[in-house]
Each structure stands twice: as C-alpha cells, then as structure tokens.
Amino acid sequence: MCLGIPGQITAISDAGRKLAMVDVSGVKREVNIACIIGDRAIEDCIGDWVLVHVGFAMSVIDEAQAAETLRILIELGEAQQEIAAMRTSGRA
Questions:
Q1: What is the count of structural domains for the chain?
Q2: CA distance 57 to 7
Q3: How many angstroms separate the CA atoms of 87 and 19, rounded?
C-alpha cells in the first residue's frame, strides 16, 4: 500500500535542490519539498507539517491533522511498517 506519512520539516538541507530534513516519528530523512513551497521563501517551510510519500513532501497539513493521521495509521498498523522501512533504507 502506498501512503503519505506525516512529518515535520526541521531544516533546509539544500535550498537549490529544494531538499529539506523531515522528522517522521523520530526518523530524520531528506525529502524534496518542491511541491509545497509555493510563492514563499524556502526557509519559511521550516516547522511545516507535511505528508511525505516516496521522498517527496506532497502537501502541507496542520499539526492536529498530522497527529490524527499518525494515530489512524498506527491503529491500522501502517505507520510502523513505513517508519521501519524508512529506518532500514537509511542504513548504508
């Protein structure tokens, strides 16, 4: 199953390539944020909650939506699988 998992943008890692570090339940990953920047400065994205899918932030959500989405995914057993996959794929 493909899904978007909520995470919070914590830093801009490469402004030119529109890459940011996103914290997804304690797992920090670099994702492309080109889809969610809009007309604002890239640095203004820090602190945003986003739905992440295959390395891209697909949409901005608010913190309450992020918490509710994560709660539902955990109930369904999907979040643990996605977070585990993120941890595994980050290892060299």
A1: 1
A2: 9
A3: 19
Residue 40 lies in domain:
5-89
pLDDT, one tens digit for every residue, the chain (92 residues) = 457 899 999 999 999 999 999 999 899 999 999 999 999 999 999 999 999 999 999 999 999 999 998 888 888 776 677 777 777 776 54
CATH of the domain at 57: 2.30.30.140
Residue type, 65: Q
Find the radius of gyration of the CA atoms of the chain.
Answer: 13
75: left (phi over 0), alpha (psi -120 to 50) or beta: alpha
For the entire predicted model, the pTM comes to 0.81
CB 27 within 8 A of CB 19: no
